[in-house]
Design a protein that fits this description.
Pfam families: ABC_tran. GO terms for molecular function: acyltransferase activity; ATP binding; ATP hydrolysis activity. Keywords: Acyltransferase, ATP-binding, Nucleotide-binding, Transferase, Transport. The C terminus is likely disordered. The chain has a single domain, classed as P-loop containing nucleotide triphosphate hydrolases (Rossmann fold). Strands 6-7-8-3-9-10 form a six-stranded mixed β-sheet, with helices on both faces. A four-stranded antiparallel β-sheet has the order 2-1-4-5, with helices on one face. It has 262 residues and is of the alpha/beta class. 39% of the residues are buried. The chain is globular. It binds adenosine-5'-triphosphate. The site of adenosine-5'-triphosphate has 11 residues, from strand 2 and helix 1.
Length: 262
């Protein structure tokens, strides 16, 4: 099977500082790739390349066999550790924005049946992430775990081909983190997602991932630490299904739009 995402001899350099060198990576559709490595190894830089926020200084990044567009498109969704939701919008508004903005780029608002359809779609996605009863709340009224559920819904509503997670659960308490592991596993299965996740938590990397990639420097120059960059030092295939047992799916609200209409 051909790879959904390919990195071919990718380098990231800032002036004389080499952050990543000779990174070669093929990620097949449906994979859950965890990326680990010491602080400063270039894990977030790698995600920014896949997101299209940055271009490699050498090499190529291909999505579906095509060179990546130089900006983030709807084919890539991303969830950061925090602050990725709009604080001035309700939960439903946050997710609808992802549908309204591309469909009506000037007003960022749909009307009539198109709006009702978008509302139904956004409400269904919020049910899937366990926020079906919170459509009218604002982010400030929600816990960190709920905000991350919202960030995931916001990323998934555009049906990305690949979901990028940058330390998505790093700021959460252990219990909430375990719930989120169940949720992301459930969504990965239900939506047939391809996921690339950066984490500092090695247990999390091995529990969730079907494959773990470790970035680190192979060569060091003690007199010029910036001279060599990190690369993939280990690439461990684990299994085809993650070890986490997903929780029972949330019960859908029989009439999700009634809460949203108020
Ligand atoms: N715009 C930039 N200009 C110069 N150096 C940069 C820039 N962006 C990142 N770097 C450097 O690239 C290196 C890798 O940073 P990056 O954030 O990708 O590492 P990381 O592995 O994600 O680290 P952490 O685990 O601490 O989040 C760091 O040394 C950082 O200082």
């Amino acid at each position: 099977m051909s790879a959904l995402l390919s990195l071919r001899n990718v380098w990231v350099e800032y002036g004389e500082k080499v952050v990543l060198e000779k990174v070669n990576l093929e990620v097949s559709e449906g994979a859950f790739l965890s990326i680990i490595g010491p602080s400063g190894a270039g894990k977030s830089s790698l995600l920014r390349l896949i997101l299209g926020q940055e271009a490699p200084t050498r090499g190529q990044v291909l999505l579906g066999g095509e060179p990546l567009e130089p900006q983030c498109g709807p084919d890539r969704g991303v969830v950061f550790q925090r602050y990725s939701v709009f604080p001035h919008m309700s939960v439903l508004g946050n997710v609808m924005f992802g549908l309204e903005c591309p469909a009506a780029p000037i007003a960022a608002r749909l009307f009539g049946s198109a709006r009702r359809k978008a509302m139904g779609e956004a409400a269904a996605m919020l049910h899937a992430v366990g926020l079906g009863d919170s459509l009218n709340l604002y982010p400030a009224q929600m816990s960190g775990g709920m905000q991350q559920r919202l960030a995931i819904a916001q990323a998934l509503i555009k049906r990305p081909r690949i979901l990028l997670l940058d330390e998505p659960f790093g700021a959460l308490d252990p219990g909430i983190r375990a719930d989120m592991h169940g949720l992301i596993t459930q969504l990965w299965r239900d939506y047939g997602l391809t996921i690339v996740m950066v984490t500092h938590d090695i247990k999390e990397a091995f529990t969730l991932g079907t494959r773990v990639l470790a970035l680190d420097k192979r060569r060091h120059d003690p007199h010029a630490p910036h001279r060599y960059g990190a690369t993939a030092v280990y690439d461990l295939p684990l299994r085809t299904a993650p070890a986490v047992v997903p929780p029972a799916p949330p019960q859908p609200d029989p009439n999700p739009l009634s809460a949203a209409a108020s």
